[in-house]
């Protein structure tokens, strides 16, 4: 993962340039893209949002949330991962803050925080109001071409990558960001 930021800086994918935020977005948030490796292989931490939330209910996302006053993106991402999924901050090494991406519908500028999990441990749903499930999603399953597809929404111009992993349907912002980072890391397989 250490090669992701230099690759991004050298030749940013269109997706990163297309979703640059305005100078003063309504909100700022951060998500933790936590990659690690244990005896079963490489993995990334994903959460499924609770089904009764008013926004993005049941969607698969990276742990994360809004920045508190005076908080930087990696501080917010680590705090949220701890509050949502029980991630021990001391087990995580932040690799890089990636450029902010703007989510137009919510007016939210999101900083993806790329991190390496040097001491993976069991995770659990901590905040049941926000999170329905936590997954240590196997990268081999994510990278398997049989689990990759394109997602489109009828009646819109939306078309983006999608994945099925650990029984979860990953699409939208999370899938696009995951696809971009895996491509920048040189891990993507033809599909």
Brief summary of the model shown:
The chain is α+β, with helices and mostly antiparallel strands and 191 residues long. It contains five helices and eleven strands, in the order ααββββαββββαβββα.
Q: What's the layout of helices and strands?
A:
Elements: H1 4-10, H2 14-18, E1 27-38, E2 41-49, E3 60-61, E4 64-66, H3 73-85, E5 92-97, E6 101-103, E7 108-117, E8 131-138, H4 139-143, E9 148-152, E10 159-165, E11 168-170, H5 172-184
Parallel strand pairs: 1-7
Antiparallel strand pairs: 1-2, 1-4, 2-3, 2-8, 5-7, 6-7, 9-10, 10-11
What does this structure look like?
The protein has about 190 residues and is an alpha+beta fold. About 25% of the residues lie in helices and about 35% in strands. It is built from five helices and eleven strands, in the order ααββββαββββαβββα. The protein has helices at about 5-10, 15-20, 75-85, 140-145, 170-185, and strands at about 25-40, 40-50, 60, 65, 90-95, 100-105, 110-115, 130-140, 150, 160-165, 170. Strand 10 (about 160-165) and strand 11 form a beta hairpin. The relative contact order is 0.22.
């Amino acid at each position: 993962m250490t090669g992701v930021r230099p690759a991004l800086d050298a030749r940013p994918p269109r997706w990163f340039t297309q979703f640059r935020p305005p100078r003063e977005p309504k909100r700022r948030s951060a998500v933790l893209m936590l990659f690690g490796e244990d005896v079963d292989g490489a993995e990334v931490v994903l959460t499924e949002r609770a089904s009764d939330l008013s926004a993005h209910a049941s969607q698969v996302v990276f742990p994360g949330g809004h920045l508190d006053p005076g908080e930087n993106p990696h501080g917010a991402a680590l705090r949220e991962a701890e509050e949502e999924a029980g991630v021990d901050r001391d087990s995580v090494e932040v690799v890089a803050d990636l450029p902010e991406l703007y989510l137009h519908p919510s007016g939210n500028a999101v900083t993806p925080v790329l991190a390496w999990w040097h001491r993976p441990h069991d995770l659990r749903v901590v905040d049941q109001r926000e999170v329905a499930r936590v997954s240590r999603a196997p990268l081999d399953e994510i990278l398997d071409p049989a689990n990759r597809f394109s997602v489109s929404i009828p009646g819109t111009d939306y078309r983006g990558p999608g994945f099925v992993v650990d029984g979860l349907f990953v699409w939208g912002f999370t899938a696009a960001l995951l696809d971009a980072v895996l491509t920048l890391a040189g891990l993507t397989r033809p599909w």
